[in-house]
Each structure stands twice: as structure tokens, then as C-alpha cells.
Design a protein that fits this description.
heterodimer; A: 463 residues; alpha/beta; Amidase signature (AS) enzymes; eleven-stranded mixed sheet; 15 helices; B: 94 residues; mainly alpha; two-stranded antiparallel ribbon; 2 strands; 4% strand; flat
Chain lengths: 463, 94
Amino acid sequence: MNASQTAAKVRLGELKAEELTKDCINKIKESNAGINAFLEIFEQSALAQARAVDAKEPCKRGKLAGVCVAIKDNILYKGHIASCASKMLENYKAPYNAFVVERLLAEDAIIIGRTNMDEFAMGSSNENSAFGPVKNPLDLERVPGGSSGGSAAAVAAGMVTMALGSDTGGSIRQPAAFCGIYGMKPTYGSVSRYGLVAFASSADQIGPLTADLQDNALLLEVLSGYDPKDSTSAQRPAFKMTPAETKGITVGIPSDFLENLNPEIRACLDKAKEILSGKGVNFKDISLPYAKYASPCYYILTSSEASSNLARFDGLRYGYKDESAQNLEDSYLKDRAKFGPEVKRRIMLGTFSLGSAHAEDYYLKAQKVRNLIANDFAEAFKQVDAILMPATPNTAFKLGEKTEDLISLYLSDLYTAPANIAGLPALSFPYGKDEKGLPVGLQLYGNYFDEAKLYSLAELLEK
Amino acid sequence: MEISLEDIKKTAKLAKFNITSDEAELYTKQMSAVLDWVAQLQKVKTDIPAAQVRRAASAPLREDNPRIDEVCAREIRAAFNDKDGDNLKVKKVL
């Protein structure tokens, strides 16, 4: 039973939210130990919420009535810890609700707990958590992807049917691909960032991870909408899933961007192309000459933004406070020692890239390349309605396999980072398996606010 | 691009990180590898109009009107352990 069916039964009074919540808590307790997807179950508040839903008249219950939803540990839920999987914020309690949390509560979802992640959302393997790595439920020796690895693993293990992640360079879509589930990075501005701990504000976007395609669209409907508290929130109506006409539309394949693609993933891509062609979708070769620069561009820009955003974790405004510090400088140095190695590395890369001696060559150069990448897509969407490509260059790799090779790890974002750089929506969906039996994720890019078309095309592949 | 040990120490100081000499050496190696990789951006020709225009943003910035969310401000103040009225007390740092 998917989440929308569960909610429908709760709205009809056929299922009790409290029973569903207790079942979910039991499932998490049974499965989490070997996977480490959840950092905390919000048992008391979840059960209280469930009872409140059951106390409502059935017809007044919301779209997600009784559905247990996990939230990534960088999303604020009032009165609950939001640690960003960092020792820096280990005991930080959210003083207010994120916009998306308000939306979930308004639709009677049950916020069941917070999921593990790469520290401050920096990583592609979930090995950067201060609270231990997450294991891929499909193969416990492999990573679930990152940085929303806990959310993806929780869904893939069947602990929950829905989870929230955040995506700055692929952090929803890459773990969705590695875990064989659906992940949407919505158009920048369509989901409020209010209450999301900032990593790189020009690219961060909250989005849904689900086991079911229809549930993904349903969850996006709940999450999206204008929020005056987010300065980049789009002033337009919330997303509504209206099936788009797919017959006769044109999907682009960016051949120049897919050179050297893993043959097993290419086979899945070709199969999807063949199936869609048989259902009336036209295909066109397109060129995205600058897309290959999205990953290095992403690392410069997001690290630069992070070096500024994470300056607030100084022990005074936010974060760990070392009581033995003797003066201000000593306090900064002792408090900021709580950041893990990847966070330190990125803050240093950002500090270097923004320095007066290097800003022209690094930060400003990357901003100009960002314009070229966005322009690539603007040109492409004059010719096609959507773009099909892989979600990841490879399937899930083994824990520790890429720890020593930063560049190889960073290139996990090769096909996902362009969407963040250009602000476009992109849907990662499972399509086939490699010869090890690991899921292959494909990806559909759309023009701004064209999420419905992406869901409709993915649905066509499912039928 | 080769980054020197001195550059790393200076960058760590600016970022307010106290790094050991072993860490400084490790970061020098790792940052050099990352900067070598991102150096590919230098080869991209960006003195063309398409690179100069402001990115077509999906979400234009809102008007910058001053706004105070009293409820939220009160809750954030309430989260402080030590306060005197609206003044928030922190440990002496100077």
C-alpha cells in the first residue's frame, strides 16, 4: 500500500493513525541497527500527533493523514534536535518549524524521526556523518549515496514510504538512484528553504524521496508553494500534479555529455528510450557543451557559499561551545574544531576561492561558467520538452572504496550537479539493474516548474 | 594548481581552524588535487556575452522590506540559557 492509499484509508476511518505510527516505530526499531538510517525516532511527538489525527473527523483529515514521514537531520522541527549529523550541532534544538514541516503537519502527516546524512549535507556516500555511516539496505557493504543517504535508506528498507531530503548537487537524486527509489529535486524556488540549515543557498532545495512515483508527486504537492520567509521563494501557486500529455513530445539525449558512460547504465538508458519511443515520445540528440563543467563549478561555488554560511557556527551565535576558551580567537578555534574533515576541507576551499588573490580565477570564473551551463539548458529547452540521462555514473560503491580519492567521489555528482547549477527540476527514478543486481537510476530534467511532465514521462515507463 | 603549505596555513587561519602540521600537509595534498581538477574551468572561454549575463533565475528575489517576526524572535530568545530581559548573556570572550 502506498502513502496516498494509506492516507485515503485514514480519511475514510478504515485505518487508525496511531496503529500505523506504532507499526512504523516497530519497523524502524527492528531494521535500523544494521543500516543506521535514523538518528532519532520522535516516538512521543509522533504518537501524540497520530492521536490528534485520529481525534479529527475523518473527512477533515489531510492529504497525508497518518502517513509517517522521515525528515533529514538538517530540517527544523520545533523542540526536536536538528544536528546536521555534526558534533557541532549535536544538542541543537530547533526553535521553530521549517516551512515544509508546517506543510506536513497541516496535512496530518506524522513526523516520525530524523535521518542520518553527510555532515552539513556535504558528501555523496553518507560516510561523512559524525554518527557513523549509513549502509545501503540492498547491500550492507555498500553506501546508500549522499548526502540524504539516511532518508533514501529508510525508504528503501521499508521503514517509511516517504522522506524529505535536501539536494544541493544531487543529494536527493544520487541516493535515490543507489537505493532504487524515486527522488525529485524541484525547481529552485518552488519549495521554501525556510528552516533548512543552509549549505549553499543558491543551490539548496528540499524535495521528496519515496518508494512510489505517485507518492513522490503527492509529497511535492504538499511541500511546494510560496513562502515570504524565503527570499528566493517563487511567487506562484503550489505544484499540482496534473498529468501532462506525453504523446508527441520530444525528449533530448545529450550525447556529448554521455561520452564514456558505463555500458550497463547506457543499456538501461537505451531501453528506456526504446520503451518511450514505442509510446509516442520523440527523441532528439542535443548538445550540452558546458554541462561537463557543472561538477567543478559546483565545488567552487557551493564551497564558497558554505564558507560564508557556516561562519555562524562559532560557538557564540550557533554551535558547540568550548568552556575552556580563554579569549575570542581561542574560542573560535576550539569551537570550530567540532567540524568533521570534509566540512573543514570545503570551508577552506571556499575561503581560498573567495580570497582577494584568487576570487577572479575561482569564484567569479565559476559564476561565469554557471551562466554558460544555464544557457546550455535554455537553448536545449527551445528544442525539447525534457532531457533523459543517467542519475549517476555508476551504481552504489562499497563503503571506504572512494575515501582516498576525493575527485572520484566528487564526480558522483556529474549528472546531477547541472540541475542545481541551472536551478532546474530533475527526477531520479529506478530503471533496471546492473550485473551485480544493484539498481540503476535514470534521470529526467525539465524546464523550470515543469515537474508534472517529468512525473508523467516516468509513469509512462512504469506502465 | 600547486598550493603551498603556507597557503593552507593562511587559509586555515582565515577560516578559524586550528590545524596540526600533519593536517596541514594532508590538506595541502588534497586541496592541490581539487584545485588541479577545478583548473579545467580556466580553459572555458567566458569573455562572451552568454557568460556575462545574469543567470535566468527561476525565482527572482523578493522586495527587501524590513520585517520582524516577533513570535519567532521570542522563541529564539527563549532558547538562550542565560538572559536578562531581552539581553542574551554569553560567556566573556574578550
